[in-house]
Write a structure and sequence with these properties.
The structure is a single chain. This protein is about 60% helix and about 0% strand. The protein has 4 helices and no strands. Helix 1 (about 10-25) runs antiparallel to helix 2 (about 35-55) and helix 3 packs antiparallel against helix 4 (about 105-135).
Length: about 140
């Protein structure tokens, strides 16, 4: 499989949605404060970019990386299902085609806990919507 490069705008969309869920809503677990969330997502973004560069590096030129800029304008808001899909995709794309993973195990563990929490939240929202529709 190929490694997909996450742009600054894509990372910013993920950050904005996670920031809204994790910082502004007390029922979101695990709790992350804004600076920690920003640093965590930048590290995952760097891991993704390193995996991308190593996978597609031609060997002749110098290997360069750009630090993700979470100050760019985000292009639209992510729905909860899209956020889950993007986080799963980011997890997968921190690994090279050769199987090298550049993300820290603690960062990946947090990513997995967040995805699990978001899945539970998504199921609760779907159940709530089903019950609401049933009682109309």
């Amino acid at each position: 499989m190929s490694v997909i490069y996450f742009s600054d705008a894509e990372l910013k969309r993920i950050y904005d949605k996670l920031n809204w869920l994790a910082v502004d809503r007390v029922d979101f677990s695990p709790q992350l404060e804004e600076p920690a969330l920003r640093r965590w997502l930048v590290r995952l973004g760097l891991s993704n970019r390193l995996a991308y560069r190593v996978t597609y590096h031609d060997g002749g030129a110098e290997l360069t990386l750009a630090i993700p800029d979470l100050e760019v304008a985000a292009e639209g808001e992510l729905a909860l299902k899209q956020l889950i899909e993007q986080l799963e995709l980011l997890d997968y794309n921190c690994i090279t085609n050769g199987g090298q993973c550049f993300a820290d195990q603690q960062d990946l563990a947090l990513l997995n806990r967040l995805v699990d929490s978001l899945r539970c939240r998504y199921v609760r929202e779907l159940e709530w919507e089903l019950n609401r529709e049933k009682h109309k």
